[in-house]
Amino acid sequence: MMAIGWTTSGEAMRGSDRRAEGNGRPSIAPERLLRDLLLQAFHSVRSERQLMEPLDCSLLFRWFVGLGIDDPVRDVTVFTENRDRLLKGEIAARFLRAVPEQPKARGCCRTSMSRSTAR
Known about the structure:
Elements: H1 6-11, H2 30-42, H3 48-57, H4 59-65, H5 76-88, H6 91-105
Helix pairs in contact: 2-5
């Protein structure tokens, strides 16, 4: 199993560091937001508010999403606003295109598939 290179994927999402409109709160980095969304999907968490509860307690969850032990958990409204902006924009699509390219760049997979003649 290969790990996702978050820094490589993060490079595909440059230009998305903005402040939340109107209130000046810093936006969540796209790669961290995508980690949050993956965690939410992997553990079948139904809402963002329910996701923030285990993030406050679980060191494993905090590590996966890139939070330190003393880092504050993200505000739910900021998370929701950033998630909506991420999914509406081109950022998520660029990330999803960058992920499968990583094994190819590392030489871990072939670019062309040979067809087996055995039937």
